[in-house]
Amino acid sequence: MNMIDAILHLPANADLPDTLTDENGTPELRDPQTANQAGDRIHYVRFTADQLNDWRPHVTVLAETPYTGLGTSDRLYQQIQASPDALALYESVYDTSPREIDDGEGGTTTYVPPFKFGMLAESMMPVPESVTSRQGMEQLIRSGLDEQVDDAINGIADPVERKLARNWLDKASIWERNNPQLLAIGNALGLSTQDVDSLFIQAATL
Q1: Which of 13, 47, 99, 133 could cross-link to 52 by cystine, CB 3.0-4.6 Å?
Q2: Is the dihedral of CA 110, 116, 118, 121 positive or negative?
Q3: Pick from 22, 23, 67, 26: nearest CA to 44
Q4: CA triplet 166, 155, 131: central angle to 5 degrees?
Q5: Rounded CA gap, 198 and 194, in Å?
Q6: Which contiguous run of DSSP H or E holds residue 9?
Q7: Is residue 185's pLDDT more than 80?
Q8: How far apart are the C-alpha atoms of 2 and 22, rounded to whole Å?
Q9: How sure is the predictor about 23, in pLDDT bands with cuts at 50, 70 and 90?
């Protein structure tokens, strides 16, 4: 079952239906979570798409991404940092500003909270041997790499390898993880082995 990691902002005055609360009226959301003095909360969740859609009318989804094992939380928090609106709402609950604290020796020291308030456990996921060209290209688009592919292929120095890479991208219906042309394009894009693995894991969920 494909899962989605998301960070939700739940206002203190949220009017939740019974289906989303326990018998005491408490939101059915587990840790990790954090709250401000007003009672507004932020939750890190791992849901199915249907579960997340049940919550959407009642929360602000600050970030969401398919769970793909290691690196999932990094992508989530990068989304928040890239969105001024999401960042402002996030920091209204979880204060990331530096502060002075007692150093235990009669003085103070500056403490800078980690940007991540929390995360769920991540495990290494198997890398698919192949994905469809539609899945692969869609993931490149989602990763902001699609417009760089043409330049990357044009930058391949060997003319034969350049033509083979272009032909593969235009004609292949399946993208095999260890295909030589795929590897050449990945190298031209400056992607590491781990980067390409992550792209394949994410593409397989699309």
Answers
A1: 47
A2: negative
A3: 67
A4: 40
A5: 6
A6: strand 4-10
A7: yes
A8: 25
A9: confident
If DSSP codes are grouped into helix, strand and coil, which group holds residue 132?
A: strand
At residue 110, the 3 state secondary structure works out as strand
- Cα–Cα nearest to 17, from 57, 53, 50: 57
pLDDT digits (tens, 9 = 90+) for 137-179: 998 898 888 888 888 888 888 889 889 989 998 999 999 998 9
Pairing of strands 33-35, 60-66: unpaired
SS3 call for 175: strand
Cα dihedral angle (125, 129, 136, 78), rounded to 10 degrees?
20
Q: Which two tokens stand for residue 126?
A: 């198997």
Alpha helices in the chain (DSSP H): 49-55, 72-82, 84-93, 133-142, 146-154, 159-171, 180-188, 193-203
Q: In whole angstroms, what is the distance from residue 97 CA to residue 114 CA?
A: 10
Closest CA to 70 of 169, 197, 192, 203: 197
Structure tokens at 124: 């290494």
Nearest to 42 by CA among 55, 33, 32, 51: 33
7/89 Cα distance (integer angstroms): 11
Q: How far apart are CA 126 and CA 68, in angstroms?
A: 9
